Amino acid sequence: MDPFGSRALITASVFSTLLALRAVKKKSLTPAGALAGFAVGFTLVATGLRGLTLFFFYQLGSWATKYKTSVKAALDETVATASVRGSSQVLAVSVLAVALSVYHAVAYGEERAWSFDRKNDQQYQASSISAAILA
Known about the structure:
Layout: H1 6-25, H2 31-46, H3 50-66, H4 69-75, H5 87-108, H6 121-134
């Protein structure tokens, strides 16, 4: 999928809108956090399909946060009873991935299979940046 191409922009719009609406409905993000999440999600998916992988990481993290909350609260008094995140928390965990994703899209274009063969320096660099985005 071409970065910032029509398919990428439509896919990014749909997934980001659904994510933001779901986050507000489930009260996992404040409205400002949902807006930041929309912007982050839109940018990540618009620059390439690896952004969808990061959506799954977000969902997994949400489930992990809520898993056995009562047990965690009994063991640790500092466990928040409501874990609603704001825009600063959304941006704190995503700004580096967004910056690298935009850089990758501008410098290397469409995503390709990863290759860490140093004989092809450009492919090696593009693969390294893609790995950093997911890290």
